[in-house]
## 1
Amino acid sequence: MNVDIFVQNVKQFCKAQGTNPTAACEASGAGRNLMDNIKKGSIPSVAKVQMLAEYLGVTTSELLGE
């Protein structure tokens, strides 16, 4: 997983939805601190990535930049 691409994509999709990454992560159920944890080197679970992608209306592949 390329963290930089993931973070950029999350920001881009959130902007398109009129929200911010922290709010989207919290609302999706992935966890309010998901983005901070990823930036610190944690790898998110597949389930959390799926929850965030579903909330943003994109595929996990789009979110991961695949």
Note: The radius of gyration is 10 Å.
## 2
Amino acid sequence: MDISLTMVIALALLTATIAAAFWRVRLGPTLPDRVVALDILPTVGIGITAVYAVATEQDVWLDAATVIALSSFLGTIAFAYYIDLRRR
């Protein structure tokens, strides 16, 4: 299988994952379900950035993926803190 075909398939699957995550954000039914769906979006962004880094053969995009991962981690911690405060 050609590498470009593999990248097209990977990007199609990542796009489908984004659509499914937005669908889960819209439907809910609970706040933790929506938080997990929102947490998936930066992870998919990291995947898209990694595929782009491979396609263009530029390692600098992997640095961008690392920044997205660190920002996503901080966002997840903030959501967890908010949910914990809400339960009390």
Note: DSSP finds three helices and no strands in the chain.
## 3
Amino acid sequence: GHLAVWNSLGWDRGGVLALAGIPRGIAPAGLVSQRAVRLDGEEIVLCEGAMIPGMGSCSLALAPAQDAAVPSPFRYDGSTLETPELQVAFDEAGGIVSLKAGAGWHELCLSGKPMNTFLLGEDVPAAWDNWDIDEDQALKLRRQTEMLSREVVSDGPLEFRLRSRWRIGRSSEIRQDLVVRAGSPALILETEIDWKEKHALLKAAFPTKLRPSFARHEIQFGHIERPVERNHRFDTVKYEVCQHKWSDLSENRHGLALLNDCKYGISTESGEMRLTLMKAGLHPDPRGDEGVHFLAYALLPPEQGFSAESVIRPAYALNVPLM
């Protein structure tokens, strides 16, 4: 049989493709492929070697799956992960204490301040319980360090997937897959949050060594530049701003973009980005956002700094899967 793959974006998409709905034992014929299972239990087939035209489709022949003769390009020893594009080191609580990318393995982490840490704090705004975030909220945030487990769940020629669990707050839990794929510098963080907190705010923090004058944030029909330092009266009220699919901190030759698929509030100061993940107000709905939430965000060190090709298109690809 054949599989029709549709690309609704306006540019060609290649590299490693993630395809859902392919029965077990079947894979695209003639392509390097690998099967993986996401956090929500959905099985996907990753394949490399096809190009899906913009605003178009392509037909892939299916055949019985065969073990790939291509070895895994990923190396993980429990505390470090190496790919052809990235070098990553972790602390005991699962935070990223070193992230090197680009020519010369440029270090992006700030010493002593790990990336991808979960910050939780009391959230009782002076007004509008389910809407407002007050200026003093940042003073209440504390890192959550109780990592319950970590294991490799996928390692092959196209994808490496590291699954972790944390307990946060009083009774909530985060499960997260750290995903890297062949040929890409993106570090994807597919996340499931079992949220049971009351009057609490949860952020994912990414301190960096970068010191640009402005951060870029996607808005409707384009993006806006906002200062990362709060030196003026008008800047002091920008402790939480809107962004859509991406925010970017880039210097002339180095940078780091934070992509996401459904979380649109962020705080950026100096070289640190903090993506707001959850809020737990109780008015007007006393249940708040209690329940299980699925989301994805990604760290992307763009080569040679910010551009449409290095940041904007990957952000669209994270949000708009192939069909």
Note: The first helix runs from residue 308 to 319.
## 4
Amino acid sequence: MENMEDSVVQKYVSLLTNAGFKAVFGDRENRDVVISVINALLPEGKKVDDIEYLPTEHQGKLLSNKEFHFDFMCKGTDGSVFIVEMQCYPDDYWFKRCVSYASRAYDRQNNRGEDYNVAPVYLIGLMGTDIVHAEPEKWVNKYVSEYTFREKETNELQDETIFIIFAELARFNKDLCDCTNDLERMLYVIRNCWRLQNQPVELQKEIFSRIFEACEIAQFDEVKRINYEQEMYDERRLNGELYTARRLGREEGREEGREETLNEMAKKMLAAGMDEAVVAEMTGVAVEKVRTLK
């Protein structure tokens, strides 16, 4: 997480932290905020009018007895499923993980394996870390990308099935005065609202006012504020431990201490419900070893 000056009291949560994301997106009172963010990032012509919150944990195949966890999941009135994932740390398998999540959500709608007339699934990834592009010159001033099944030459879309949409906030460095449309203003708010002390005059539309209202820590009730502060404390501590483990890894003669630190950190991540593959990627601990730490 990007840090503020110690002398400044943070007024708004950061949507690019686990605690801030959960406080805003996980609160059913903020369903209009969630709808606004989703609509801003959906393909042209697609719009959500209302949503129904869905469980974020689902049982995997019975033989594996494994659960998988979404950051946020909801369903539109037309049946479309929306998954919103927040990714702050580098992950070499991020795209494959998104494909896996979206595919499982798509397949779960077909309970009997007979009726394939199922609603599309949209996975939206809010990216606080860089995506490596093969041709970066094609991505200048392009921050939202869409991946789906299309015919290679004609670009024909036979049917709406699975869409993976990334908002690359790590690359979005525009000042507010340089934002030319509401999509760019939305990206600016998602990335920067935690830095601000007041809602800028350029963002006085109702859509943005509600986001600032939902992110204002002083507006949380006591239980929500206590939970948020505890989760932020845990997140900062985890970030500190991750930094320490990486630093130890760069120092010679500290392999034993480094391994112990990484294993302890992996245990805490698993206890917090993080996916095994993600824990392995973030800590550098082998997946096989991660599984023995539960």
Note: The first strand starts at residue 51 and ends at 53.
